[in-house]
Design a protein that fits this description.
Low-confidence stretches: none
Oligomer: single chain
Strand content: 25-35%
Shape: globular
Structural class: alpha+beta
Radius of gyration: 23 Å
Strand order of the largest sheet: 2-1-5-6-7-4-3
Number of domains: 1
């Protein structure tokens, strides 16, 4: 008889912020529950502009498809009531929200440079964000959407339960400098897709009603 203790513990999905030069994790955000569904969208990057009629470019691709992911995460303090949570789930929400905010120290530094009359201020470079969905899908991403719906509160109005809509854009080799750690991680992800596609049993043209499988 199988005991519950013998069952393998499920892998959790999450986000990892890493130093793009050293590759060392700076923050790991583990999602409390794995989302029930993932919405993925891929937009091919054709070489020719749509509708131009350039027949020489019809089958050419200028780079990897633009890929976006969307999912809904749930955060619930009532699932961990044995842990003291004087702020409710605000720390969890703040960790996600800081993915789209620059550090306050950098903002103050830029304000000081602007006050001194600096003409060009370099935008703040954030850590490289990776979205992990199991060991076979580790993707460099940029957060494009974050919507928070707080659903329950304690007596101090700290949120206790929330659903968070997260939108991600996968960063590919066209988005990052050559040799960037994120670009290398994307190429590794793409190579893994090629290997997975190669494991699919080949189909036969006869199954499509196209004769004995000869040349077209």
């Amino acid at each position: 008889m199988t005991r519950y203790a013998d069952l393998p513990k499920p892998i959790r999905s999450g986000l990892v912020l890493i130093d793009p030069l050293r590759g060392t994790p700076q923050r790991v955000i583990v999602l409390q529950f794995n989302p029930d569904s993932l919405e993925r969208s891929l937009a091919p990057q054709g070489a020719g502009a749509e509708g131009t009629g350039d027949r020489t470019e019809a089958l050419r691709l200028k780079g990897p498809a633009v890929e976006t992911w969307k999912f809904t995460a749930e955060i619930d303090a009532t699932d961990q009531m044995e842990i003291a949570a004087p702020d409710g789930i605000q720390p969890e929400l703040a960790a996600l929200e800081m993915l789209v905010h620059p550090p306050t120290a950098q903002v103050r530094q830029n304000q000081a440079l602007a006050a001194l009359g600096t003409l060009e201020i370099t935008p703040v470079e954030s850590p490289l964000t990776l979205f992990t969905w199991g060991s076979k899908r580790v993707l460099p991403v940029r957060l494009t959407e974050l919507t928070v719906t707080e659903e329950a509160f304690d007596v101090q109005l700290n949120p206790l339960r929330a659903t968070v809509g997260i939108g991600l854009r996968v960063l590919n080799v066209n988005d990052l400098p050559t040799g960037h750690r994120g670009a290398e991680l994307y190429l590794a992800h793409l190579a893994q897709k090629e290997q997975l596609a190669g494991r699919l049993a080949p189909g036969r043209t006869t199954a499509l009603g196209l004769g004995n499988g000869g040349a077209f």
